[in-house]
């Protein structure tokens, strides 16, 4: 995993806000070297971004975790479709 510059973090924040339609999304630098860059919405961390560089090409991977307890309750209609 490669570390990210402040410029990359700022550009990722602009890109993710546009793509996900959330102006409250923030991309936060790690508090110390070696830790992941975190993605948060309204202060709640929803995932991490990892930078990969291979043969001179740079890509970023967003890993987002959604806990089942955060999902809305399942409706009877959804249960019957299973």
TrEMBL record:
Instruction: Report the superkingdom from the record.
Output: Bacteria
- What InterPro entries would the database entry show? DUF3126
Q: Pfam families, alphabetically?
A: DUF3126 (PF11324)
Q: What is this protein called?
A: DUF3126 family protein
């Amino acid at each position: 995993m490669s570390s990210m510059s402040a410029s990359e973090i700022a550009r990722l924040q602009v890109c993710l806000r546009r793509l996900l339609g959330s102006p409250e999304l923030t991309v936060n630098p790690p508090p110390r070297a070696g830790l992941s860059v975190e993605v948060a919405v309204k202060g709640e961390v929803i995932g991490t971004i990892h930078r990969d560089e291979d043969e001179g090409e740079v890509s970023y991977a967003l890993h987002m975790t959604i806990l089942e307890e955060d999902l809305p309750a399942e409706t009877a209609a959804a249960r019957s479709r299973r």
